[in-house]
Amino acid sequence: MSEEEGRQREARQRAKTDFRFDDARLCFAFAGTLADRGTAEPFERLGRPEDLGRWCVESGCAAEAPDCTSEELMQAVRLREAIQRIGQTLAESRPPALEDITLVNTAAAKPTSVPELSADATAVHWTGGNVAAVLSMVARDLIALCASEQRSRVHLCGNPTCGALFVDTSRAGARRWCSMKTCGALLKKRAYRAKTQK
How many CB atoms lie within 10 A of CB 102? Predict the structure, then answer.
């Protein structure tokens, strides 16, 4: 491998660790911290407690990265997987497992962070956010989704290697990808190449 190829590979790897928030509800952005779910080797973006702290800030749920323990990281991953499974059951119009509902309800029962309006009233910052408070916000977002009419618009990404969940808010209800910027563009490029190579 050349030095340039090494740099390109490193840049791709760095980009892979970036959290995805485009076109995603909070709960599904959190579920997306495990990428490439449709592959033999999914990519874990929450590999260390520090990654969870970074997600808390980048998601907008905390102004500062909370201190995270390994146990809190494990709890977060369990919640994440429960959210993914519940989302899949919504997409497939079937009932979720009671254990997953219990896990989400337990997380949602914890106090959340507190919203604080900026001095110019143009922004909201969340304060007092420890990990449990952030996970409570994530769980409550899933509960709000389940209680809304949008529950029938939950889908799995049309990219078979992705496995990300999304809510189709398009008027026609014909959205196929978690994000046009990632999976949609990728699969359209593949389809175009296949077409031009015939």
Answer: 11
**Left (φ > 0), alpha (ψ -120 to 50) or beta: where does 48 sit?**
beta
Print pLDDT tens along the chain (198 aa): 555 554 454 444 446 788 988 768 999 999 999 999 999 999 999 999 999 999 999 999 998 999 999 999 999 999 999 999 999 999 999 999 999 999 999 999 999 888 889 899 998 888 877 999 999 999 999 999 999 999 999 999 988 899 999 999 888 877 888 876 768 555 555 554 556 666
Each domain of the chain, given as residue ranges in start order, spans 3-150
26 Rama sector, left if φ>0, alpha if ψ -120 to 50, beta otherwise: alpha
Query: d(Cα 99, Cα 90) in Å, to the nearest integer?
Result: 16
Q: Domain 3-150: state its class.
A: mainly alpha
